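In the current project phase, we have settled on a layout for protein records. One protein thus recorded is set out beneath this paragraph:
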Amino acid sequence: MTRILRIDASARRVGSHSRDLADQVVHAWLDKNPTDEVVVRDLVQDPPPHLSQPAIEAFLTAPEQRTLAQQQAVALSDLLVDELLDADLLVLSVPMYNFGLPSALKAYLDHIARSGRTWTMGEDGQFRGLLQGKRAIVCLAYGASGYLGGAFAPADFVQGHLRTFLGFLGIADLTVLAVEGTTLDPEAVIRSTQAAQAALKNLMAAGA
């Protein structure tokens, strides 16, 4: 059985193209694998706090040596990491906000980037991700068009950020599905939605 961890980052609970695309991914997956489990982490409904000094100090302190304040500060991070480690497939729904990630998602990423738990450094000084074998499907939404191979592609700091971050943690099997023009270009929405749906169909046919 595959355990899916779905992470939603769009501030829109209704009318969100990234959430809608993630819905399609999860439904398509469960159609083929009805006994698989889905855990939902909605970062808007339950936003993680930005890192604090006690949390950072706790990350750098052995668990048995942490103060009570440090234990409390790291409790949510430990929960999020455990949730991630238990998952086989990540499905992220992410809109671009002002050329970057939603702040709640950035806070989440800061909580799960944990030395000794999701990444480590070898004796050779090389970083090594500890999440090898996991898969990720990232569902992106851009308000303007031109990000998917167009004139604004160099300003897409969302896809590159997520590819780099997840790759750092060891997730090499990553698929990106994207819709663009959601606030400015209806034709681009239709075109990119059709392309994303075709890519999803191919992904499922390849053995989801």
The mean pLDDT is 96. The chain has six helices and seven strands. The first strand starts at residue 3 and ends at 8. The radius of gyration is 18 Å.
